[in-house]
Amino acid sequence: MTKLPRPHIQDPRYSAPVIPTYVLTFMIDLARQRRWDPAPWFAGLGIEPQQCYEPDARVSFRQGATVIRRALAATGEPTLGLQVGLRETLSSCGVLGLALMSAPTLGEVLAVAARYHPVTGSFLDLRVEGAESQVALVASERFPEPDLLPFFCEELFLCCQQVAKGLIGTGYRPLRMEFTYPRPAYAALYEEAFDCPVRFGCKANRAVFDAASLHTRPATANAAVHASALSLCSQQSSGQGGHADDHVTALEFWLRERLGSGVRIADAARALNVSERTLRRRLADAGWSFRSLHNRLRAQHAAALLGDPALPVARIGETLGFSDGREFRRAFKRWTGEAPNAARTRARRR
């Protein structure tokens, strides 16, 4: 079977060893409980399972994704992300757990989690989006790995849920959960795990809350402890590789909202309040050009949409700004090395 080319592997951040190994340790613990051998998951990656428990252990996104992909294949357990997420607690978050526990309100808990979540070893990026009545915790892909997106989302959002329940009790309940990928065969377990309505095939991966609930004050709130914990989180996150330059991360968010329209780097620089020259330099330092980053995000979004067999290829092209289906097909093959229909067929065989 032909593998889909992954152009993001050229991004230096993809191979930078900056991700704490907390998620991997939970997978190893689960493996030992289920009498699985996790050693083959790590073969040839330069790190052994036991090394993941060392205080300063770090892996790259490439290493972590490889371990997770191998674990899913070896165990035959598609629900592995749910199982890992349900094992996590406030203490799983390390020093971030202390910052969350001492936060003055649930709203601040969300804001701090979005800002410092990389210190927990997550494989997605978080942000908070709000309106007057509803607020959402939104997870975005750091690198496009469509086959691993369900695991990433299950682990991260269930970790967040376990943390929230630890802070305000079993009364915690989001209004709904939304995911971009198609409904999995085990979707019934989502509603059981998240205890709320769950939707698939959405525009974003997010947990939606009633804005009024964000004023809830955890019983463990403590201003002095909170300030100290935030300082420690800042120290730990300062060396987090791809997150050290928030200009590139902010640009990715800006581009994701405009995948179907013509964009210029001058417009992006103005929106991000930086000079065009600075933005070009930051992109170059991360191994990207404005065009290549934009195309990577478009290819990622197209690949996700191709997972829905009911969505015509021409319609997918329209969402990305292509008025001609043939033009979209040529662009997709240029981006990925594979025709859209071939990518769709391959996705069905997984």
Strand order of the largest sheet: 3-4-7-5-6
Provide the low-confidence segments as ranges: 1-5, 241-245
Q: What would the average pLDDT be, to the nearest integer?
A: 86
Largest sheet: 5 strands, mixed
* Topology pattern, helix = H, strand = E: EHEHHHHEEHEHEEHHHHHHHH
Helical fraction: 40-55%
Amino- and carboxy-terminal Cα gap = 10 Å
Whole-angstrom Rg: 20 Å
What fraction strand? Answer: 5-15%
Structural class category: alpha+beta
DSSP strand tally: 7
- The backbone outline, from C-alpha atoms, is globular
Number of helices: 15
Give a topology summary.
Layout: E1 19-20, H1 22-33, E2 58-59, H2 61-75, H3 80-87, H4 95-101, H5 106-116, E3 124-130, E4 134-141, H6 149-168, E5 176-178, H7 188-194, E6 198-199, E7 205-210, H8 223-237, H9 246-256, H10 265-272, H11 276-285, H12 290-305, H13 313-319, H14 325-336, H15 340-349
Helix pairs in contact: 1-3, 3-6, 4-5, 4-8, 9-10, 10-11, 13-14
Brief overview, please?
With 350 residues, this protein is an alpha+beta fold. It contains 15 helices and seven strands. Strands 3-4-7-5-6 form a five-stranded mixed β-sheet.
Kindly describe this structure.
By secondary structure, the chain is of the alpha+beta class. It has 15 helices and seven strands. The chain has helices spanning 22-33, 61-75, 80-87, 95-101, 106-116, 149-168, 188-194, 223-237, 246-256, 265-272, 276-285, 290-305, 313-319, 325-336, 340-349; strands spanning 19-20, 58-59, 124-130, 134-141, 176-178, 198-199, 205-210. The chain has a five-stranded mixed β-sheet with strand order 3-4-7-5-6. A two-stranded antiparallel sheet has the order 1-2. Helix 13 packs across helix 14 (325-336).
